[in-house]
Amino acid sequence: MHDTSPHKxxxxxxxxxxxxxxxxxxxxxPALPEAPPAGRTLVLGAGxxxxxxAHTAVQNLAGPLHGLVVTRHGHxxxxxxxxxxxREAGHPVPDAASMEAAQAMLDLARACTPQDRLIFxxxxxxxxxxxxxxxxxxxxQKQDIVRALVRSGAAIGQINCLRKHVSAIKGGRLAAASGxxxxxxxxxxxxxxxxxxxxxxxxxxxxxxxxADARAIMEAYSLPHAQALKAVLASDRxxxxxxxxxxxRYSIIARAADALAAxxxxxxxxxxxxxxxxxxxxxxxxALGRAHGALALRLRAQGGRHLVLSGGEAVVxxxxxxxxxxxxxxxxxxxxxxxxxxxxxxxxxxxxxGIDGAGDAAGAFxxxxxxxxxxxxxxxxxxxxxHHDSGALFAAAGDLVKTGPTLTNVNDFRAIxxxxxxxxxxxxxxxxxxxxxxxxxxx
Length: 443
What we know:
Blueprint (H helix, E strand, L loop, with lengths): L5 H16 L2 H4 L13 E6 L3 H11 L4 E8 L11 E6 L6 H15 L6 E7 L2 H4 L9 H14 L3 H10 L7 H5 L5 E6 L22 H10 L5 H8 L15 E6 L1 H14 L3 E4 L4 E4 H18 L2 E11 L11 H13 L5 E7 L11 E4 L3 H7 L4 H6 L3 H8 L2 E2 L10 E8 L2 H15 L7
Parallel strand pairs: 1-2, 1-4, 2-3, 4-5, 5-6, 7-9, 8-9
Antiparallel strand pairs: 9-13, 10-11, 10-13, 11-12
Helix pairs in contact: 1-11, 7-9, 9-10, 12-13, 13-16, 14-16
């Protein structure tokens, strides 16, 4: 990144504080049961935080343990998990490793005795990394269906509903297959509204969604392998276990609201007036960015230092586009377009798992002169938005944020710093001028 202002450092500090608040070592130990069961504890889990959660569980649970967790390729973290094996599998589209992990977990759960305890560690990304289609649907067909849903801009709740009803392990089926009723599920939530059964598609939690809901979602989108999918959903065996039929309990140990709260505390301590828009913002990323741009301009007109925080899960509909960059970068591109280089306004938007879209960036940083620097490299914001290629825009400007896998996941983290003080506005104008001259501004 070119911008060396304290605003960038401030926004990155907020991201660090947000991530620390929702990582397993901070949020899982207080929730774990202290007394071991009469038998053994089986630790299973799925999602981008699975390896870190397993590592923390092994360090804090008493009694004999064994188990298996599965995470996204590259998100194993190299952590010591002792008797709990860590596997890696595909995301956002499941692969053969996803199926192998799912079958292995079902086998382990079925081998539990009534004296054993099953602990399931759920986090975002588990829906893809733990996949086992019902008979009648192949893995390749399910891959194509999920890929089409993701690209269509379908809400995550819709995607998960369909996933559950074509799965042999999701939607409470893992718990239903278990030989013990002593089941504890611990959740790092990446779902807007924190519907527990939607995180990792709830392998150990009852499903309130119905087969009729899944059929309606199928009809609402033009999906591949329509005949095979329709045949699977025509059978009553595709119905998932319902509330009251699945044993166990669950705890949501971290959520987007916790990440925003940590950032809010830090910002308040540093003298910023915080405007928290909440952790459930959804919809098209570009529309959200434009709306937040208008808000930022209104706050700047008031003077003072304002910070706008938000979380949730924005989406990008991709009708045939193949650009790089995910929802957080598209949000920032639309925000930049709305701001027109207004001085004193900086922003950061990242996916808390460390991967925004298909690239290797967590998101990006936005300064008043970001678009000017991108234009100097031949990339314009209008073209980037038209082709859903925000990654190229921020790469050209040098403003990508790369954290690597964070081993947690509470979805989007967005922060806009509006410095309407005289010093803040002057610094923005001075920084832009100095960069045009090829001089890095001092911080």
